[in-house]
């Protein structure tokens, strides 16, 4: 419930992918998928389709509490105009001390914008359910400190063939997996990157696997193996959503950030 006179908190989704026919039909678009996972009553969320060249006005950036960058079929190390413009925006948000959450492509392009390295995944495609190992005591981070106990391993939906090869100077690797060396990273108290998809439901990934198979991006055996793992287990969506919400919704204190771009 919104208290009278209380400022409405605004958040922005920087959508780096076009809505698939399936997601449009079932969810009304990826914006609604993110809103369901991360939004709360009394907030205002704005959508910017950066993949189509739609960006927030620079003069309006200060009005947002936080920003979320979605996944994308594009390479985060690509030099398309919108990707280069997105990198400049993310660098600006970093220096404005704005909270930025990067998901999949968003995780990678955030790393690139802040001075890290991204490229093709050393171990190829990772699609399906992946177990993450927490390698840092994340309860020491201000945005995790009052969460209920976070398990040392979390299952998350993955779908990527690129990855973070080297985090920016001053960043910390929070989680790894047997497939990917940087599953989560933080930088200061206002940057969080997650390689997997906390927002994805299993049906979204099933449809995505079918599309990748029909487009010849993956082979049938690989697709069936990925699906079989999804049938047998569930992602830790509730815990992952709590982590993301806590990161985005808490108050920040301005501090000097270690590292240099």
Automatic annotation (TrEMBL):
Record GO terms (molecular function): peptidase activity
Q: Which Gene3D superfamilies match?
A: 3.40.50.880
The alphabetized UniProt keywords are: Cytoplasm, Glutamine amidotransferase, Hydrolase
* Principal location: cytoplasm
What GO cellular-component annotations does this UniProt entry give?
A: cytosol
Q: In which pathway does it act?
A: Secondary metabolite biosynthesis
Query: What is this protein's record name?
Result: Glutamine amidotransferase YLR126C
Originating organism: Nicotiana sylvestris
Which gene holds the coding sequence for this protein?
A: LOC104249304
